[in-house]
Amino acid sequence: MSLRLEPRDNASVGLKLGVSLAAGLIALLLVAIPVLFAGGSPLNAYGLMLQGAFGSMFALSETLNRATPLILTGLACAVAFRAKLWNIGAEGQLYIGALAAVCVGSGLLQLPPALMIPTVMIAGFLAGGLMMVIPTIIKQRFGADEVVITLLLNFVVILFIQMLIEGVLKDPMALGWPQSVPLIAEAKLPKLLPRLRMHWGLIVGLVAALILWLMVRKTVLGFEIRAVGENKAAARFAGIPVDATMLKVALISGGLAGLAGVGEVAGVKGYLSSDLSPGFGYSGIVVAMLAGLSPIGTVIAAVFVAAVFVGADSMSRATGISSYIADLVVALSLLCVLVGSFFLRFRVKFERRQVEA
Predict the structure, then answer these.
(1) CB 314, CB 322: distance < 8 Å
(2) Which structural domains are found in the chain, ordered by start?
(3) pLDDT tens, 239-259?
(4) Using an 8 Å Cβ cutoff, are 57 and 196 in contact?
């Protein structure tokens, strides 16, 4: 009996969904081991996590509120990775988008109320996009590694924002707390439901996922992105403007991450602080990989990751088991998806060797 790996021409949608679902289930089974060592019941823990994430309208709203920035940063990473542009800077792009929102929406610009929210969102999109376009130009011009540049820019941006909120943007009414001046009411995103934190940023994320799916599947730019991601040399030989396509991808990717920052400032907090994001930009990488770089799958993966973290907080309060169990679930899910991607690329075949007489 011998084992042979045969490359797949194309994995079906059903197979991709099956691999992602199996990855999540296997991750939950593996996480059950440390839960048992912590003295808890895995079934009870997972039941409490499910109840904490979806058991009431408040729980559901908190899960969707947590999923909103993950959808946008996940889309940012998904579109970039599809073109083999490795954007590790969604965290910095989120913060720079939030900064642009504060600069425009805190009353520094006198605009009609109807134009305030669209202007804030456009400013955040362009600011985030610029933060990705610059590393892409440096890569094209000098051959620098965009992974290193975008990763380091995260720390540069956060330190820059800390300087601003301790200086020219500091809120004099914050009693010394390091936060920016607040957004005016006309610049804040409306809530979807009264007395809940869900806001219109969720709708923006869902619309962005639909537009991105249509763009990748139905447009010339989507074809160019797929071609560049598959083989840059072949795409260039076929007449596709590779450098221009990469710059477009960089603008879209960084812009989506910038919109995530706008949502957090204009939809949740109302002001900018250095702890605005608990790592939404980095979690977006996990979301994109769990989704297999699919825009629609990104929405599902973002809700899954958000539910794990929100549910883990609720479960921890009820059982005393550490909420860091959520990090284990997400990390193991990603590892299982990466293993599963191997079986999406190759088909395993067993062959029986015939013994010669």
Answers:
(1) no
(2) 2-351 (1.10.3470)
(3) 999 999 999 999 999 999 999
(4) yes
